[in-house]
Specification:
The protein is of the alpha+beta class and 446 residues long. The protein has one domain. The chain contains 17 helices and 9 strands. Helix 8 runs antiparallel to helix 9, helix 11 packs across helix 12 and helix 13 packs across helix 14. Its main location: nucleus.
């Protein structure tokens, strides 16, 4: 589809990088669509799509929002179910989509200024800010965010995404179907996120277990039931996006107006919500920009790079006291937007983002192995540009752990925050240093 079908927002990537923000473990319902490599929209090199040839889509309750991005522009449009909005009101609906985008991506916040402020206060952040630009916090729907992060317990992005997709497919009727923008003959069907009333019935837990949710199945059903039972009063109300929200969903949104501690206390009442999950929800859907969700990975960052005293005996017991110490440490460095800064640093330290932001050729295969031949046809949900990171470091493919938040395999091809900081005095550019390290690592592996 030609780009002139899209509306535009002048927005440089340092203010918003879709390739990072939509893949770093905040939201799990965005679909990434790419053309085949021989498509006319592909880049001249033929090795990867051009920025505007990648489309991101999400299904809201009354429309599907489609996004593309170039270095200085965000392109957007909406797809509506039949019957299509009359032309006389289409302009108003497009204006609603624009307002939703501004709210969802919090575009009123100047991210470039925040990066400069953090870099001035923090030499660690300054060492990698240029590579990991454009990572901001989404302002998500609290109900969807709550359920998604109940699914996140001992989990990774790939599995969470499948769970959330299954929730939508099995508990929310399809809104519309639309042809794939790049693959002729392929049609994509979109489901909104189900409301609390759809997940509250007693049989939901058993069915979710059959869909692979494990112990999280009962957590989701019981949380939905608590919301419906305690906040069923009142009739559904429509929002600006023709979105009829249930009373329990509106109650969750009201938590945004509470103090952080009071809103956290309300969230901790739900089954399957501990301190970290509650803090993720506070940060990503309830405007609590100072909150830093802490797990063992974030704790290790604080110990390695910010002088936090290490616990004895290896892996720490994340007590409330230790959790608060890590929070206080990061808040003392970054201030009111500590949660935002933490998300950039967390993403940068993931090994799955080790090549993000580097203009380097693909890694050579190890000796005795030939690269896998890529399929000519691209699936509807391919990752491009960066691999999908886990919420917490995933298990090694050679040594699996029952918990996804324990250890990652040492990867000589990766560059951590420590390595970036150690080499800031090198006369080579960052890209050249990484190329040099990759070449040295490759030879060591032969």
């Amino acid at each position: 589809m030609a780009l002139n079908a899209f509306k535009t927002i002048p927005l440089p990537i340092p203010q918003l990088s879709l390739a990072a923000v939509l893949k770093c473990g905040q939201s799990f319902r965005w679909t990434t669509l790419t053309p085949t490599l021989d498509d006319s929209d592909a880049s001249p090199t033929g090795t990867e799509p051009s920025p505007t040839a990648v489309e991101y889509r999400i299904c809201l309750k009354d429309r599907v929002v489609c996004l593309r991005q170039s270095p200085d522009t965000l392109y957007y449009r909406s797809i509506y179910p039949d019957p299509q909005p009359p032309s006389s009101t289409l302009h108003r609906f497009d204006a609603e989509t624009l307002e939703w985008l501004k709210d969802y991506f919090q575009l009123k916040i100047d991210l470039v200024s925040l990066y400069k402020e953090w870099a001035a206060k923090d030499s660690v952040f300054a060492g990698f800010q240029d590579r990991f630009e454009g990572i901001r916090i989404l302002r998500q729907d609290p109900w969807e965010n709550l359920v998604s992060f109940i699914c996140s317990s001992n989990n990774n992005i790939s599995r969470i995404t499948k769970m959330v997709q299954n929730l939508c497919m099995h508990y929310s009727p399809p809104l519309l179907s639309d042809p794939h923008p790049f693959i002729p003959g392929e049609t994509l069907t979109y489901h909104p996120f189900p409301p609390p009333s759809a997940l509250a019935p007693s049989g939901v837990g058993l069915r979710l277990r059959s869909l692979g949710f494990g112990y999280r199945a009962d957590y989701i059903q019981r949380t939905a039931q608590m919301l419906v039972d305690e906040h069923r009063s009142g009739t559904p109300k429509s929002t600006s996006l023709r979105d009829t929200a249930e009373a329990s969903e509106l109650w969750l949104r009201q938590l945004r107006k509470m103090k952080t501690s009071d809103a956290r206390d309300e969230l901790l009442k739900f089954v399957g919500v501990g301190r970290k999950v509650a803090d993720c929800i506070l940060l990503m859907s309830m405007d609590k920009k100072e909150v830093v969700p802490v797990d063992t990975h974030v704790y290790q960052i604080a110990v390695k790079h910010y002088g936090l005293k290490s616990a004895t005996g290896g892996k720490p017991n994340m007590t409330p006291k230790l959790y608060e110490q890590v929070n206080a440490k990061f808040f003392s460095i970054w201030g009111d937007y500590a949660g935002w800064a933490h998300t950039v640093l967390f993403t940068a330290d993931l090994k799955s983002f080790s090549s993000y932001g580097l203009n380097t050729p693909p890694s050579q295969p190890l000796a005795g192995k030939s690269p896998k031949k890529k399929s000519k046809t691209t699936a509807a949900t391919l990752d491009i540009g960066i691999p999908t990171p886990p919420l917490t470091p995933g298990p090694s493919p050679l040594k699996r752990s029952r918990e996804s938040d324990k250890f990652e395999e040492e990867d000589p091809m990766s560059m951590s925050i420590s390595q970036l900081c150690e080499e800031t005095s090198d006369s080579l550019s960052l890209a050249d240093r990484v190329k040099k390290r990759r070449r040295r690592s490759y030879h060591l592996l032969q």
